[in-house]
Design a protein that fits this description.
Layout: H1 2-21, H2 37-51, E1 59-60, E2 65-69, H3 75-82, E3 88-90, H4 101-104, H5 107-113, E4 117-118, E5 123-127, H6 137-144, E6 149-154, H7 157-174, H8 182-186, E7 187-188, E8 191-192, H9 197-201, H10 204-212, E9 220-224, H11 225-230, H12 232-242, E10 254-257, E11 262-267, E12 270-272, H13 287-308
Parallel strand pairs: 2-5, 2-6, 3-5, 6-9
Antiparallel strand pairs: 1-4, 7-8, 10-11, 11-12
Organism: Neomonachus schauinslandi
EC number: 2.8.2.-
Keywords: Disulfide bond, Glycoprotein, Golgi apparatus, Signal, Transferase
């Protein structure tokens, strides 16, 4: 009896010794136990998406890249140009998952369902310009995927304000609804109306600081929207490098349309331009008011340049 008990004890000691020989390691960033709950759910959904892949091997994937803004900064042009790359699968519409509560409350399964079918080697991209200026969005995106790559396209803040107004103005015109002049929005009691939402959207340093609380600057590539309009190819090359895509987009993919006044795309012999709503003429603004607008953005622009460590050719 004693000998059998001793044998059991000896076996237990040897088992414990063997277990201690197995080295332990901290959870890597990709490990399920090292991720927040939403990130674990995202990883699980990606696996489920691949298991339910179509016969040709395509499946829906959560985006590995998001164009987060800015509104009227050139996000549609950027997405269309990026879609020229064969390794990019882009969501067709603005998804508004992270900024609209009625969408976010439906969970990542709903979000995945809004994505295009793609091959395993393709990069899924979605764009929702309102993300950049929505306070809740950075943390929500980070919870889904802290390693995601973000694209932010910006243009001269004053021009962006005018473009913002122009879009809303034409939306009202199409619906045959009256809309005030831009001066009525920009001026209040003889002063620049700093409460105008379009002005707030152009305070880039304020919104970027919110994103930098959750993402390092190296995860955010800033596209110069003004340069993208004037000479798109160099800007798209930078985007390809940031996304670690092979250089597939060429200068021959772009041609200047003299009638429209901006660059259009040539893809496999097929020419296409952005919708007629893009590139609309801005309203005529009193030069003195325009000067006030430029003056207002002078200090915010300097803060933004310091924040990102580069300058832009803005007023």
């Amino acid at each position: 009896m004693v000998s059998s008990t001793a044998a059991l004890l000896l076996g237990a000691v040897l088992l414990v010794a063997q277990l201690q020989l197995v080295p332990s390691r901290p959870a890597a960033p990709g490990d399920a136990q090292g991720q927040p709950e939403l990130a674990r759910r995202a990883a699980s959904l990606q696996g489920e998406g691949r298991e339910g892949a179509a016969p040709n091997g395509s499946a829906q994937q959560l985006p590995q890249t998001i164009i987060i803004g800015v509104r009227k900064g050139g996000t549609r042009a950027l997405l269309e140009m990026l879609s020229l790359h064969p390794d990019v699968a882009a969501a067709e519409n603005e998804v508004h998952f992270f900024d609209w509560e009625e969408h976010y409350s439906q969970g990542l399964g709903w979000y995945l369902g809004q994505m295009p079918f793609s091959s395993p080697h393709q990069l899924t991209v979605e764009k929702t310009p309102a993300y950049f200026t929505s306070p809740k969005v950075p943390e929500r995106v980070h919870s889904m995927n802290p390693g995601i790559r973000l694209l932010l396209i910006l243009r001269d803040p004053s021009e962006r304000v005018l473009s913002d107004y122009t879009q809303v103005f034409y939306n009202h015109v199409q619906k045959r609804k009256p809309y005030p002049s831009i001066e009525e929005f920009l001026v209040r009691d003889g002063r620049l109306n700093v409460g105008y939402k379009a002005l707030n959207r152009s305070l880039y340093h304020v919104h970027l600081q919110n994103w930098l609380r959750f993402f390092p600057l190296r995860r955010i590539h800033i596209v110069d929207g003004d340069r993208l309009i004037r000479d798109p190819f160099p800007e798209i090359q930078k985007v390809e490098r940031f996304l670690k895509l092979s250089p597939q987009i060429n200068a021959s993919n772009f041609y200047f349309n003299k009638t429209k006044g901006f660059y259009c795309l040539r893809d496999g012999g097929r020419d296409r331009c952005l919708h007629e709503s893009k590139g609309r003429a801005h309203p005529q603004v009193d030069p003195r008011l325009l000067s006030k607008l430029h003056e207002y953005f002078h200090e915010p622009n300097k803060k933004f340049f310091e924040l990102v460590g580069r300058t832009f050719d803005w007023h």
